[in-house]
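Appendix B, Record 12. Input sequence as logged:
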Amino acid sequence: MKKSRNAPLLIAIGLAALAVFLYLLAFPGKNSLSSRAYYLDTAGSEGGYQRIICATPSVTEIVFALGSGQRVVGVSDFTFFPSEAKDMTSIGGMINPNKERIIHLQPDLIIFQGKHESLARFSQQSGIPYLSVPIDSLQDIVLAIHTIGQKLGEEARATQLSNTLQTELQALRSKTEGLPAPKVFLTLGHTPGDLSGLMTTGPGTFLHELVELAGGKNLFDDASGLYPQISKEALIMRQPDIIIEVFAEGITPNNQTLLRKDWERLSDMPAVKTGDIHFITDDFLLIPSMRVVQTAKKLIEIIHPESLDEQLDRT
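Logged structural output:
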């Protein structure tokens, strides 16, 4: 099923779907790898799965990075990476999976991100083994790589991937350690003409951690909830030094102009006075997988460009 990144309707739906599944990530439980749970249906044999459905983009990226892409028979909507996965059969979005299509694909394992009671129930009723991994934080990504790798019989590759990820993130962190930390407001899906109820990132998320890794101070690092909505008044009170707008599905030049006009209404804020307002549009920005290294680079280029020895790779 081919998915166009340029279609306006898909852009709108994609942003909504991403926002919703970000709220669905965390849930309680037990696991030897972490105090935070991985729910695992124990049916099936370790490593023997040959028809896998990846129900979120982050899971797809991890499975392919583990070298098991040839076993994937279905992916979720808004899967754009790696290129081999873009045109695979889609089972729909996280909030609206097509259960008939899932049955038709005859999977022997479904892997999804976070708590998804309806999909878990459907898998149980259909006799399909499934694995659910919470992926909120950077450490969760590491644990998810190990857990999925173990389930697919790719433990050695999982260890290599997680070690590389942690090494690369630490190398980037070392570039900004000890530098002044400007106050950064990162917002997701700002609608032109509306500065009320802006969504941001709170503590416990990989985006929060990446802002700090890049040498910034998350403006709402004391917020309750992973992805809270905040008022214009709260934003004015906290006076951000840098504003970063995330549009993972892209943004038109006209909308970017309209968004800048919104911020001009708050002319007393430091970020507005200095024009330190940035729009980033890469498809990996909201995907908690190995490509968080690229997100970290993007944030460093904005928050502490002076820390770079040379221009970071933008690819």
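The radius of gyration is 20 Å.
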